[in-house]
Description:
Blueprint (H helix, E strand, L loop, with lengths): L3 E6 L4 H10 L10 E6 L10 H6 L1 H10 L6 E4 L7 H6 L5 E3 H12 L3 E5 L5 H11 L5 E6 L10 H17 L5 E4 L8 H8 L3 E2 L1 H15 L4
Parallel strand pairs: 1-2, 1-3, 3-4, 5-6, 5-7, 7-8
Amino acid sequence: MSERILVINPNSTEAVTRGIDDAMAPLRMAGGPSIECMTLKEGPPGIQSQADVESVVQPISRTVSARDNDCAAFVIACFSDPGLHAAREATAKPVLGIAECGVLTAMTLGQRFGVIAILDRSIPRHLRYIRQMGVQDRFAGDRAIGLGVVELTDEDRTFSRMAEVGTELRKRDGADVLVMGCAGMARYRDRLQREVGVPVVEPTQAAVAMAIGQARLGWSG
């Protein structure tokens, strides 16, 4: 079996992929699987609507099928987990979605998790997913920073809004652990955790950590 984890950024914004790749540094280790981060060229600049989610389902499945022979596991690096179930039908290897993994990881770090969304219109999709997962009792709230995926490259503006929203989730909603609701936020995790004072889960890191464990243990779908 190939010791490679393929992380698929379903949007076409290369800056997001670079941020994800940088966030993989703590998970790259001697003797461990290689971690490859790729951009889905067919994707929109950001996955910001249900139409965006549905537009990348087939391209993701095709990518998984094409790379099945040289990868041990796959991670879909978008908080909507687009195409997760279709991709799982395309391979017997583990396929992990960052929303599912981020939420599950958060519940090991605190009692009530809060989600930092990019846009208000992202929140209904998050709420549907949380209901599908059956974890509403552990959910504190979901608040948006009001910036689209491409705008997340404005570091000062993005971090300021994330700190404000993270503090609101902690103080007003009672969250004792936060989940970043977009892979494009990856570069801000360490700073945000220090600023807000509660654990912050970067969901692609959470998913890749699980993927490494599943690949090394020989688990398959």
